[in-house]
Design brief:
Blueprint (H helix, E strand, L loop, with lengths): L7 H33 L10 H14 L6 H19 L4 E4 L4 H12 L5 E4 L2 H9 L5 E5 L18 E6 L2 E2 L9 E5 L10 E9 L3 H7 L4 E7 L4 E9 L3 H11 L3 E11 L3 E2 L4
Parallel strand pairs: 1-2, 1-3, 5-11
Antiparallel strand pairs: 3-6, 4-6, 7-9, 7-10, 8-9
């Protein structure tokens, strides 16, 4: 004898029950956030964004995921949940640099932060960062692969915003919001994650050979300075001794470091294994 398969009505009732449970759990999460605001007084200290905690949450999400539901959908749902509840704690806006293309940047912002968080367009990375610096807890999204100007110089001051994340965090070739971007904001020191350190470095003697020498050690965005025969670099290096390797490589290549300032950090990206 075999079990009688469930009817469509039975399966739909199960789905309705699960949907109700999900909604109830989200409302319970909201109740906890409401209590958290009272306990921590988050609205009085600025952004509630917590890059280290978020990276840990996303790693655990990917590792436990299974079944037919696409990872893209799960990642986006959790991103929107995190961003929206962060917004509820301490309202913020996303300042987006559209110089790398509006559709791709808007896709990244909506995928990672949803539609509740205000999206404010700018036409340069510098303008997006400047708007964030003038705010209490806003974020800026800027290109993580290229730039026409050294916008990161504005992050060198101690009180300035810093790079706090690199998106997408869950990396795969077919990511629906795959534009590489840095997230810039002003958050609490204990919320930062520096698995990858971000350094603003100014060098003399910059050329293509020096760039090739540094490429095995880090990801680099370079804006040449033709007046001083140098360049302003934004360098991503694994901490904590990555900068020393860069300094040694510059010296070996015949260049010299004029200055270096830590301008943030982010979590090591999670790469989904190829199947």
């Amino acid at each position: 004898m075999t079990d009688t398969p469930p009817s469509l009505q039975d399966l739909r009732r199960e789905i309705d029950s699960i949907d109700e449970q999900v909604h109830n759990l989200l409302m319970q999460r909201g109740d906890i956030i409401d209590r958290l605001i009272s306990v921590k007084k988050t609205q009085e200290v600025g952004s509630a964004f917590r890059p280290a905690r978020e990276a840990d949450m996303m790693r655990r999400l990917v590792q436990r995921h299974r079944g037919i539901l696409p990872l893209d959908t799960v990642e986006s749902i959790w991103r929107v949940i995190i961003a929206t509840f962060t917004y509820v704690q301490a309202p913020f806006s996303v300042h987006a640099d559209l110089s790398v293309g509006e559709p791709a940047m808007r896709d990244s912002a909506r995928f990672h932060f949803g539609f509740t968080v205000p999206f404010l367009p700018h036409f340069s990375a510098g303008a997006a960062v400047d708007a964030t610096a003038k705010s209490r807890g806003d974020l800026a999204l800027v290109s993580a692969t290229s730039s026409r100007t050294p916008w990161w110089l504005a992050l060198e001051a101690t009180a300035a915003p810093k790079i706090i994340a690199r998106l997408p965090f869950v990396e795969r070739a077919d990511h629906p919001a795959g534009l590489p971007v840095f997230v810039v904001s002003r958050v609490a020191a204990d919320a930062m994650v520096t698995e990858i350190e971000m350094w603003s470095v100014r060098v003399s003697g910059w050329n293509a050979d020096v760039a090739r020498t540094l490429s095995p050690f880090s990801e680099i965005i370079a804006v040449p300075d033709t007046v001083s025969d140098g360049a302003a670099l934004l360098i991503s290096v694994p901490g904590p001794d990555g900068l020393r390797k860069i300094t040694d490589a510059l010296t070996a290549a015949g260049a010299s470091m004029r200055s270096a300032a830590l301008v943030g950090g982010h979590a090591t990206r999670y790469t989904v294994p190829q199947t």
